[in-house]
Amino acid sequence: MRCFAVLVFIIFCFCLNITYAKGLFEYERIDFFNKGGLHNETKQTASNDTPEIVIDEWAEPIVSSSGRISIYLPPKEVRSFLDNPDPKNAKAYLEWNSRRIKKFLAAQEALKKETKEIETMNELKSQPSLTAENKTKANYLFYFMRKECLYCAKETPVIEDIYLNHPEIKIKAFARGYSDQELSRFKFPVMQDNGMSRILKLTSYPFIVISNKKQERYRLPGFIEKEKILELFE
């Protein structure tokens, strides 16, 4: 009986110690570097809200790589005209389409201009008399002219005369302000000056660049008489 009482006393003391320890260390973590004393962990719950996907005859959901959903709709003029093709909506649609076509045409002109400039640059690189030493030992004359230039109007017949009567001189002309149709009327080869004069840093018109068989080069601004030009090729 005495042993049983001792055993009960031991069990009571053991339970008492557990209760005291639990009261003392009831928090699993004490953060001594937190101004608040104890660190309370917060649980973040992911939002289950997703954007509403609108699906009808016109809407098209588009999902980006990040998962963001956006809705594409054709322009109002297009939707209104196709839903209700009356004269009023047809006019609005035509006006919208005209604005769109004008933008396409402007972009096409920009591409056309850029293409011509690239072609001119390639042609310039292929001319040894302007970009490198003239190893072919040929006579070159490059003529730069501008529309409504009085001295150009006087110089142009001179260039035509040289082209027709002196085939040993290779002539290439570059023009500004002329249409393609106007350029086709000249008797010597001529093309649009799409940056060629800028590359050569020309500041006046007319302007003649000469490279002869002796590999001599001349830059002649203003009107130059035929005899003076021919002397440079002798």
Describe the structure.
The protein has eight helices and seven strands, in the order αββαααβαβαβαββα. With 234 residues, the protein is α/β, with parallel strands linked by helices. A hairpin with a 5-residue loop joins β6 and β7 (217-221). The radius of gyration is 44 Å and the shape is elongated. The termini are far apart. 12% of the residues are buried.
Strand arrangement, largest sheet? 5-4-3-6-7
State the total count of DSSP E strands.
Answer: 7
- Count of separate structural domains: 2
Top CATH class of the largest domain: Alpha Beta
Order of helices and strands, N to C?
A: HEEHHHEHEHEHEEH
Q: Please report the number of helical segments.
A: 8
CATH homology superfamily of the largest domain: Glutaredoxin
Largest sheet: 5 strands, mixed
Helical/strand content category: alpha/beta
Element layout with pairings:
Elements: H1 2-24, E1 60-63, E2 69-72, H2 76-83, H3 87-126, H4 128-131, E3 139-146, H5 150-165, E4 169-176, H6 180-183, E5 190-192, H7 196-199, E6 207-211, E7 217-221, H8 226-231
Parallel strand pairs: 3-4, 4-5
Antiparallel strand pairs: 1-2, 3-6, 6-7
Helix pairs in contact: 2-3
